[in-house]
Structures are given as structure tokens and as C-alpha cells.
Amino acid sequence: MTLILLVFAALIVALQIALTFTLKRMLDLLAATRDEVHDLRLRVQTLEQERDAATPPPSALFTLMPRPEAAVPAPAPSPPPAPSPAPGPAKPADLPVLHEPAAATSTDAVGAQVRALARQGMPVREIAERCGLSEAETELIIHLRQEPV
User: Fold this and answer.
1) Does pLDDT of 8 surpass 90?
2) What is the pLDDT of residue 4?
3) 3-class SS at 1?
4) Residue 76 DSSP label
5) CA quadruple 116, 122, 128, 129: dihedral positive or negative?
6) Quick one: pLDDT at residue 44?
7) pLDDT at residue 84 in the model
8) Closest CA to 126 of 111, 143, 114
9) Residue whose C-alpha is closest to residue 139's, from 129, 125, 130, 147
């Protein structure tokens, strides 16, 4: 009987030792994985910062200028161009200029036209082409209407 108890005690001790080594290995793997994840996060942050630094802000791409007045005198002839200086920061005159559209139709008028054509049974593609909209915009205008078309 004592022999059986000693054998069981030895098995229990052996199992505890094996469990301890297994847990130690798992903790080491977990630490290594955590370090890899940390390194990958730092790499992603570095790449994002490099990408953001390389991309100029939208305000650097365009300069908004007021619309020219109707009675603007013709410009005087300019002197011959001088040699261009070394490349440096762009002056506001060198950047592309966005102007307001000449005459945009009222959104209410476009919406009314879209709904009227839809009531006549015209397909969405034809309505979009006729009104100068995308098919998605046309469908949205039609579906946003409260009353049935």
C-alpha cells in the first residue's frame, strides 16, 4: 500500500514539473509574440508618418482666387521673361487656381426635373444623362421624395 502511495506521489511530482516547464515555455512564447506585435505597431506608425509627411496638405495643392470682375481692363504687354530662379517654395501665382463654376443650375430645379422625368416613366440612366448627374445621384433624388413617383 505504501508503495502505491509513493508511486502516486512520484507521478504527481513529475506532472507538476512537466506542467511548470510547459507554462514557462508558453509564457516565453507569449512574451516573444507581444514583442513582435509591438515592433509591427511601431513599423506601421513609422510608415504612416512617412506617408503623411510625403503627402502635401490639400491647401498646398490649390489656391482659391476670387472671380474676375466683368469690367477688367486688358493686361498691358509684359516684358520678356527673366531667367527663372533656382527651384524653391512655390509662389501663390505659380499654383493652379480654382474658379467658381460659371452658372450652376439650382438644385431644386434639377430635383424637380428628375422627379418629373421619373413620373413620366423614363429610365434612371436616361434621366441621369439628360440632367448631367450620375445614376446614383438620380436614384437618390427619386427615392428621397416623400410622395410616390
Assistant:
1) yes
2) 92
3) coil
4) P
5) negative
6) 93
7) 54
8) 114
9) 125
The CA distance from 46 to 16, in Å, is 45
Pairing of strands 63-64, 97-98: parallel
Predicted TM-score (pTM) of the model is: 0.33
The residue written with cell numbers 477688367 in the block is: 72
CB burial of 41-78 (b: ≥16 within 10 Å; e: otherwise) equals eeeeeeeeeeeeeeeeeeeeeeeeeeeeeeeeeeeeee
What is the number of residues in the chain? 149
pLDDT at position 141 is 87
Q: Are 117 and 123 in contact (CB under 8 A)?
A: no
Q: 101-135 burial, b for 16+ CB within 10 Å, e for fewer?
A: eeeeeeeeebbebbbebbeeeeebeebbeebebee
3-state SS record for 37-50? HHHHHHHHHHHHHH
Count Cα atoms within 13 angstroms, Cβ side, for 54.
6
pLDDT at 15: 96
Alpha-carbon span 4 to 27, nearest angstrom? 35
- Residue spans per domain, the chain: 2-59, 105-149
Rounded to an integer, what distance in angstroms lies between the CA atom of residue 42 and that of residue 47?
9
Q: What's the pLDDT band for 70 if we cut at 50, 70, 90?
A: low
